[in-house]
Amino acid sequence: MAGILHIIGGGMAGLAAAVDVAGSGTRVILHEAGRSCGGRARSYHDRHLDCRIDNGNHLLLSANSTVFRYLGITGALDTLSGPGEPIFPFVDLAEDARWTLDLSRGRLPLWVFQPHRRVPDMRLPELQSLYRLIKAEGQTTVADCLLPGAFTRRLLEPFSISALNTLSDVGSAALLGAVVRESLSLGGHACVPWFARDGLSESLVDPAVAYLETMNAEVRTQSRITGLDVAKGRVTTLHTAQDSIALSEHDKVIVATTAPVAEALLSPHMAGLMTPNAFESILNLHFRLADTPRPLGSFAQCGFMGVIGGVTEWVFLRGNILSVTVSAANRYAKDDHEELARTIWQELRRACDAVLEQPLPETPDAQRIVWEKRATFAATPEQNRRRPGSATPLVNLALAGDWTNTGLPATLEGAMRSGLHAVQALGLKIPS
Q: Taking the alpha carbons of 402, 405, 408, 414 in that order, is the dihedral positive or negative?
């Protein structure tokens, strides 16, 4: 008898686990406490902007094999947008410089020998920073590995903050090294950037929910699991605010919630459970314009641009919406939000006007600040040691979430990989 797989949490980890198991003969029931699935990777209609926006921006790389497998299963590969080649436009506001990083398609890093394709003013010995990151272990921070120079300031530090959502002076070099090993060290074919063309829900959530329905899986939104019972080393009952769900000896459970929720659910039954307990925020600002900007050059080809030398880090253009992402945003938590938005808008004008047919207006039509205060665990060496594995002492329960020990920082790839790890920890079969 196959039994039922109960997945608690409908974020990316929970959805990935459900998609992996659906169609295998195991019945899947996904419990999501909110009104919709997706967690930190979803879209919604914002009343103030009167349009649909994402609660954050996520840039994928072609190396994200677990994400692309998920998109392939759910039929959502054609919902992505990107340049189709490993190019990244940048602007340095502090030094008034612009360039497009153009990586070699193959594994040999020929781009570093061609000044028009590499980071301006970089010196070849600075590439040693990448080797140091790849070899880093334990307590080593990113800053410990970075050599001073343009390559660090204009690429490695921005890349580190985006990947880890943690500043480089405290960020784990081992975690960033894992990202480098799976992307830049493999060559440009692993670094082609992609993002959701219409919205995160349209790419990552809605197709998955539709797929699960065709596979006779059940997605229960507004279904909060408030507790569970354990007997003889296994979960026997799940409790909701309305009723209780008795589990058979064949049923299994994946807890794919946030770390604090998982700890609250499981600590009464799993002595010594340790999870990350320090978190970093992400700041996103969405600016609506009366007229749709018309981008030029590599900004038009990519649909996004990296910004250095200001508060702004990445800017994405979708129709008449300019969206800005600022990672490791705890450092701005005490700043006045409206003043921060004005600063970022002025940075946008400096960054974008030269690559738009018409300059941006003095002020946007409307704006929305979205501050994810506990967006990810702080990717420090100390917090990395607190990440549990997927398997637990309870024989029918496994953990999933970007905060579990995936070997990666809290990225979409890490979240989805954790779902696959949880499925494997429970010994469930995955359809080929």
A: negative
Alpha carbon 390 to chain centroid distance?
Answer: 19
Helix axes 157-164, 173-182, angle to 10 degrees: 100
Distance of CA 93 to the CA centre of its chain: 26
Whose tokens are 């340095």? That residue is 92
Tell me if residue 209 falls in helix, strand or coil: helix
Distance CA 173, CA 132 (A): 9
Distance (Å, rounded) from C-alpha 73 to C-alpha 365? 39
Please state, rounded to an integer, the average pLDDT across all residues of the chain. Answer: 96
Mean pLDDT of 282-295: 96
Taking the whole predicted model, whether its pTM rises above 0.85 is answered as yes
The pLDDT tens digits for 85-107 are 999 999 999 999 999 999 999 98
Adjacent-strand bridge partners of 193: 61
Distance CA 92, CA 167 (A): 19
Do the strands 193-196 and 80-81 form a parallel or antiparallel pair, or are they unpaired?
antiparallel
Average pLDDT value for residue range 53-72: 95
Q: What's the rounded Cα separation, in Å, for the pair 210 and 386?
A: 35
Of 14, 332, 341, residue with least CA distance to 161 = 332
Pairing mode of beta strands 80-81, 279-288: unpaired
Structure tokens that stand for 363 in this block: 């002020």
How does DSSP classify residue 185? Answer: G
C-alpha distance from residue 159 to each of 166, 228, 335 (Å): 11, 41, 24
Instruction: State the Cα–Cα distance between residues 103 and 89, nearest whole angstrom.
Output: 12
Q: Could you tell me the pLDDT band of residue 249, with boundaries at 50, 70 and 90?
A: very high
State CA 192 to chain mean position distance.
16
pLDDT digits (tens, 9 = 90+) for 343-388: 999 999 999 999 999 999 999 999 999 999 999 999 999 999 999 9
DSSP state of 49: T
CB atoms within 10 A of CB 31: 24
Say yes or no to pLDDT of 432 above 70.
Answer: no
Query: Residue 10: helix, strand or coil by DSSP?
Result: coil
Exposure on the CB side of residue 369, measured as CA atoms within 13 A? 19
